[in-house]
Amino acid sequence: MLEAVFDKIDQNAQLYTTWLQELCRQPSVAAQNRGMAETAALVARLLEAVGARAERVPTAGFPVVYGELQQGAPGARTLAFYNHYDVQPEDPLEAWDSPPFAAEIRGGHLYARGAADNKGNLAARLAAVHAYRQVGALPVNLKFIVEGEEEIGSPNIAAFAAAHPDKVRADGCVWEFGYKNPDGQLQVSLGVKGMCYVELRVRGANTDLHSANAAVVENPAWRLVWALATLKGTDERVLIEGFYDRVLPPSAEEVALLDEMAYNEAETLEQLGLGSFLGGRTGRDLKEALVFGPTCTICGLSAGYSGPGTKTVLPATASAKLDFRLVPDQDPHEVLAALRRHLDARGFGDIEVTPYSLEHPAKTDLGAPLIETVLAQARRVYGREATVNRLSPGTGPMYPLCQAQGVPAVSFGVGHAGSNNHAPNENIALQDFIDGIKMVAAVIHGFGAA
Amino acid sequence: MLEAVFDKIDQNAQLYTTWLQELCRQPSVAAQNRGMAETAALVARLLEAVGARAERVPTAGFPVVYGELQQGAPGARTLAFYNHYDVQPEDPLEAWDSPPFAAEIRGGHLYARGAADNKGNLAARLAAVHAYRQVGALPVNLKFIVEGEEEIGSPNIAAFAAAHPDKVRADGCVWEFGYKNPDGQLQVSLGVKGMCYVELRVRGANTDLHSANAAVVENPAWRLVWALATLKGTDERVLIEGFYDRVLPPSAEEVALLDEMAYNEAETLEQLGLGSFLGGRTGRDLKEALVFGPTCTICGLSAGYSGPGTKTVLPATASAKLDFRLVPDQDPHEVLAALRRHLDARGFGDIEVTPYSLEHPAKTDLGAPLIETVLAQARRVYGREATVNRLSPGTGPMYPLCQAQGVPAVSFGVGHAGSNNHAPNENIALQDFIDGIKMVAAVIHGFGAA
């Protein structure tokens, strides 16, 4: 039966590509409240097109689009899909080779903000259900949880899960993201890092001033620089007291997974135009940092004049956006509190800290049946072993939606190593999209049969 | 005779305000090459309107508008005016209460980018010559040097002075700027600080990346922060080796001037919304820092995402704009070289340093006759003593145009303590403008009579 579904997917490839383009051409920048209602409506329409009952569940922010397809035989398992319909802001616009919402196809790739993160995966999962149902009955019940605030830290998804336990209950959840590694192997992720995203703001005089005043008026940009420099040393070690206290060292089983993880260092360095990785890391050290290392990243710096040429200005204000990616069992609320104490203790009590996103890390129990299904079906669809990523360097609300509910979560998808998530020229390969649809169909099949 | 000139100025007040508005409504942002040719043409036209022979002298950048009025009696002194027709960029636009090039008059003030720096002074000087000549013959020969690149560091004015020694030769020069202090006293400046304006740029990967990569890819924003933090300590001391070596301590005569300098600390703090000055300085310490202290100022910081909300991005590049204001006898070229050595020695050899403006500090000899004339005429026009600023915290090409040519330079003008130079809502009081015209006329009169 599954071969017939695969044939159907090949026959419908043009239709599914159209769905993908339709999704990608609809801007949905949650951070800037652009196109959110339109995109939620489009997702609901596509859910209904594949036979699901769809509803938009209100939250304190953008609605969750929820879909349900209860057609499994009595006693059938329930498989949930978690995706998101929001995307990152598309700037810097000038760095894109085609407009970010044009969804242009060039050389077998589709380029768009959201192509890889996360509309390609959403479209692939919808397409798989569509094709499967054209061939026969689904062997599982399905739930779709498609939120609109993943890129702004999912501030309302925990409340959604608490308010709708019936909607998140499942025997397994296919998580939102996934990529091939540089060797072309499918990566399967069994956890996510957490996140503490904050903005630091320093205020000086109530107006920008001629920089001649710098001899006597405090410069918030200097205070920001000095404060930031206390947060992380040039050896990359975070200097906030207690930051590493809850970090769990990888278990023997996790270390074994690390050794199997493929990472093409030379190709990645060439793609990025770099001579070496951070701190000169290679091999297992490099992989361990990527998988199990918490980070503290300056995502943005802003103060005064940054246009062409010169402006001799003493800025009135300076700000930095920082993300801390956390690993089990770090707690984002604890990190936020420790950051505040750190600044206060060093004379930076005046620096405002605004939290934007506080997400727990999460790990799937290695014994979950869904893991076995996904790895077996990957072998079947791609003709080779998938690699297992114990903890994705990305983040997301896996803790409230899955771990806290006892639902095993496994993540795979249609991206590749050069998909440029969150960056200009985000893209997926159309062949990966079609293969990814087959992979979803195979997982539905396998999870229903087991 | 001078009283008749003053009467004429009062009669022509409306006309001169119109000239001022015409100048202010013409954008002339040298840093962005906006409106430069139009403004040069307007200045030439106004010079001719007051009877000067005007020409636009080409440079490697924007032309110098040069005017000459040779009508003094044989043996008469020559007085030069140095001004500039370019202005600072007007951003942040949203902080202006009226459009920056509308030259709107509200509550007796004219608001415009360039109103105080430097079009108000240029208009006042033109108006003074116009009024004087309506009453009688000028007692001095006049030269006008009106450059178009002051706000971008006067990169071509030294070459102009070298190529045209006849155009810069004079017995004294009225420099471009000037303000009342918070007590309403006219400030007369007898020197300027120098400038070394640079941009630091750090490059990482060849594209912005998802910040999940921060565990293994170097972040240029962190490197920028760490490098900047090595340049100046939290005690405000510049840590570049040799930075202070050439700083001359103030002489006894200069210290005496410092003690006479008025500075309304409480009012300035209130205007700026600050609780205290930098380092808690007050009184003479404060004035000494303002007048004789070199500075290192972050004028701009830029990296990654600085829009609303969050973007979890690892920036490809990070940059800072820095200005060093220098005091006699610091040398901007030496500071630039020392900065490069400093960065190299601390492992920041990869950081690009782009110099934008390198200007020497300059001081007028305290025995120059023009100083006596200006102070005496200020008493007459304003009815009270002017304060003397030995070294203005501002900067400009006084060294190549005056000090290196043996021409004493004295600076005074039509601004006030809240003129917001280089900042939103730049403005001058119309009464200060009219008084300033009279002051220029009085200096012409006094310098010709002496």
TrEMBL record, chains A, B:
<dbReference type="InterPro" id="IPR051458">
    <property type="entry name" value="Cyt/Met_Dipeptidase"/>
</dbReference>
<dbReference type="Pfam" id="PF01546">
    <property type="entry name" value="Peptidase_M20"/>
</dbReference>
<feature type="domain" description="Peptidase M20 dimerisation">
    <location>
        <begin position="191"/>
        <end position="346"/>
    </location>
</feature>
<keyword id="KW-0479">Metal-binding</keyword>
<keyword id="KW-0645">Protease</keyword>
<dbReference type="GO" id="GO:0006508">
    <property type="term" value="P:proteolysis"/>
</dbReference>
<dbReference type="InterPro" id="IPR002933">
    <property type="entry name" value="Peptidase_M20"/>
</dbReference>
<dbReference type="GO" id="GO:0008233">
    <property type="term" value="F:peptidase activity"/>
</dbReference>
<dbReference type="GO" id="GO:0009089">
    <property type="term" value="P:lysine biosynthetic process via diaminopimelate"/>
</dbReference>
<protein>
    <submittedName>
        <fullName>Peptidase M20</fullName>
    </submittedName>
</protein>
<dbReference type="InterPro" id="IPR011650">
    <property type="entry name" value="Peptidase_M20_dimer"/>
</dbReference>
<dbReference type="Pfam" id="PF07687">
    <property type="entry name" value="M20_dimer"/>
</dbReference>
<dbReference type="GO" id="GO:0005829">
    <property type="term" value="C:cytosol"/>
</dbReference>
<dbReference type="GO" id="GO:0046872">
    <property type="term" value="F:metal ion binding"/>
</dbReference>
<keyword id="KW-0378">Hydrolase</keyword>
<dbReference type="GO" id="GO:0009014">
    <property type="term" value="F:succinyl-diaminopimelate desuccinylase activity"/>
</dbReference>
